[in-house]
Amino acid sequence: MRKHLAFLVIVFMGATAHAASNDVIQWFQKTEQSLMDAIASGDKAAWDRVLDPSFILTSEEGEVMTRAQFLAALRPLPKGLSGTITVKELTVQQFPSFAVARFLADESEQVFGQRLTTKYRVTDTYRPERDKWKMVASHVAVVTQDPPAQNVSRANWPALVGIYQLLPDGWTFIVELRDGTLYGGRDPKKLRPLIPLTPDVFVLSGSLGEWMFVVENGSATRIVNLRKFEPLVWTRVE
């Protein structure tokens, strides 16, 4: 038993991360930035030098891609699109046999004259090879943020005010109109702004998913709330 515990302690100590040197951190900073720069230009060579043959990518949309699939899909941005990605807040956890690099990918994109800004959290896992590293896995997640409110008609917003419920006996969702702004939430003391995308489609501030009011005969009868691409229907109960 003692021998078994001693073995586990040795294994644990061997797997413990240690502080990466400045040279290692600078290598990852430079390498990750070069890879981000290569996305807009479709530079396959930059990625080909770094990716391990066993590389697997999990994209921000949940797609799983092999090395060959990723490189085949990597192309220059089409005409009318341009953008840059800046690597920020990079950290490195270095272990005896691998390293994990995490950073914020700050993207600015022009789509036919319209500017989009998106942030991603990227986690890359590397294995050492001589004096360099090979990336074996990458996971990308979008950093959620409230969208900008659109300039839409508010004439019908009083018809959206009310109490909605997950029938037959579920939670209730309250919608109020205050000083020209719609608020919603389950707790009447903690209602949050509903950010308009269209006159009857909103995002609840600080949360994911769209809230789509269904209006019939001049009054809202239900809300279809898209939660991670699945509809949740709240029925008006007043």
Layout of SSEs?
Blueprint: H1 2-14, E1 18-19, H2 22-41, H3 44-50, E2 51-58, E3 64-66, H4 67-73, E4 81-94, E5 99-111, E6 114-129, E7 132-142, E8 162-165, E9 172-178, E10 181-185, E11 192-198, E12 201-204, E13 210-216, E14 219-227, E15 230-236
Parallel strand pairs: 2-7
Antiparallel strand pairs: 1-4, 2-3, 4-5, 5-6, 6-7, 8-9, 8-15, 9-10, 10-11, 11-12, 12-13, 13-14, 14-15
Helix pairs in contact: 2-3
Could you explain the architecture of this structure?
The structure is a single chain. The longest helix has 20 residues, at 22-41. The radius of gyration is 24 Å and the shape is elongated. 20% of the residues lie in helices and 49% in strands. The strands form two sheets. It has an eight-stranded antiparallel barrel. Strands 1-4-5-6-7-2-3 form a seven-stranded mixed β-sheet. The chain has helices at residues 2-14, 22-41, 44-50, 67-73; strands spanning 18-19, 51-58, 64-66, 81-94, 99-111, 114-129, 132-142, 162-165, 172-178, 181-185, 192-198, 201-204, 210-216, 219-227, 230-236. The termini are far apart.
State the separation between the terminal residues, measured CA to CA. Answer: 67 Å
**Continuous helix count:** 4
The counted number of beta strands is 15
How big is the Rg?
Answer: 24 Å
Q: What would the average pLDDT be, to the nearest integer?
A: 92
What is the global morphology? elongated
Strand order of the biggest β-sheet: 8-9-10-11-12-13-14-15
Strand content is over 45%
Helix-residue proportion: 10-25%
Low-confidence stretches: 5-14
Most strands sheet: 8 strands, antiparallel, barrel
> What class do helices, strands and sheet pairing give?
alpha+beta
Q: Identify the quaternary structure here.
A: single chain
Instruction: Write the H/E string, N to C.
Output: HEHHEEHEEEEEEEEEEEE
